[in-house]
Design brief:
By secondary structure, the chain is an alpha/beta fold. The chain folds into two domains: 17-146, Response regulator (Rossmann fold); 162-261, Orthogonal Bundle (Arc Repressor Mutant, subunit A), CATH 1.10.10.10. The chain is built from eight helices and 13 strands. It has helices at residues 40-52, 63-73, 89-99, 113-122, 134-157, 190-201, 209-217, 228-241; strands spanning 4-5, 32-36, 56-60, 77-81, 104-108, 126-129, 163-167, 170-173, 178-181, 184-186, 207-208, 251-254, 258-261. The strands form three sheets. The chain has a five-stranded antiparallel β-sheet, with no helix packed on it. Strands 3-2-4-5-6 form a five-stranded parallel β-sheet, with helices on both faces. Strands 11-13-12 form a three-stranded antiparallel β-sheet. Helix 2 (63-73) packs parallel to helix 3, helix 6 packs across helix 7 (209-217) and helix 6 (190-201) packs across helix 8 (228-241).
């Protein structure tokens, strides 16, 4: 194990930039959100609500239309319902993860924990239970996009002094936000890489689950967020990095605390 250092255009959504008359109006074009839900009322509420905050919004009523709209619009984030006709949210999620790392927030009315966790296991960045507050959804969207933007800005600041970390056969390029095993790239979502980056920032020192929720998802303790969101993302990250889940050597569970990345000398 060694450590070393070395040096789109978007299509129109169903709501244009001129609809942004909310707090961020006048600050230039904002991100495009694709809202996918078979309930007309939910699509209309979210379209209006997100446009008020300056987002451009595209919508889709079923899974097949969602995939078509995704290709046409190239959104910055997808809000995705689970129960839909033609192709459900899980199917859409799996198709999107084959081609894109775009942040995805799931909406689910399913009460079983295993159903809610399934979306995270398939690659969603977060989920919200129905019925939900549009204000809460907007807060989560803002947090996820802020994390992506902050990570991108930090990568740009490192451009002149690119940091590449090598751990065994893994090569982690913090500037390009890419991970390779040999010559093969390991595809991580934005949140997965942010989680990896956070753990690497203090290798050998544990982060509690609540710390990770606050730093990656922006959750405050008052929200009483489900810490299994962290557990599922760690499990997914371990799997992609080839870390044995029964006896992990890279991302280690700190009993009673949280997780840490092995100390890098």
């Amino acid at each position: 194990m060694t450590t070393s250092a070395s040096t789109s255009a978007k299509g129109p959504g169903s709501t244009g930039a001129d609809a942004g008359k909310g707090p961020d109006a006048g600050k230039g074009a904002k991100e495009t959100i694709l809202v996918v839900d078979d309930e007309v009322s939910i699509r209309r509420i979210l379209e209006t609500r997100l446009a008020m905050f300056g987002y451009q919004v595209a919508t889709a009523a079923d899974g097949e239309e969602a995939l078509e709209r995704f290709q046409a619009v190239e959104p910055d984030l997808v809000v995705l319902d689970v129960m839909m006709p033609k192709l459900d949210g899980y199917g859409v999620l799996q198709e999107l993860r084959k081609v894109s790392d775009v942040p995805i927030v799931m909406l689910t009315a399913l009460a079983e924990v295993k159903d809610r966790i399934l979306g995270l296991e398939l690659g969603a960045d977060d989920y919200l239970m129905k019925p939900f507050s549009p204000k809460e959804l907007e807060a989560r969207i803002r947090c996820v996009l802020r994390r992506v933007q902050r990570s991108g800005a930090a990568a740009g600041a490192r451009a002149a002094n690119t940091s590449v970390i090598e751990v065994g056969d893994l090569r982690i390029n913090l500037n390009k936000r890419q991970v390779f095993r040999g010559e093969e790239r390991i595809r991580l979502t934005g949140m997965e890489f942010s989680l990896l980056e956070l753990l690497l920032s203090r290798s050998g020192e544990p982060f509690s689950r609540n710390d990770i929720l606050a730093k990656i998802w922006g959750y405050t303790p008052e929200r009483h967020a489900d810490t299994r969101v962290v557990d599922v993302h760690v499990s997914r990250l371990r799997g992609k990095l080839g870390d044995d889940p029964e006896n992990p050597e890279l991302i280690i569970t700190a009993r009673g605390m949280g997780y840490l990345f092995q100390r890098i000398l």
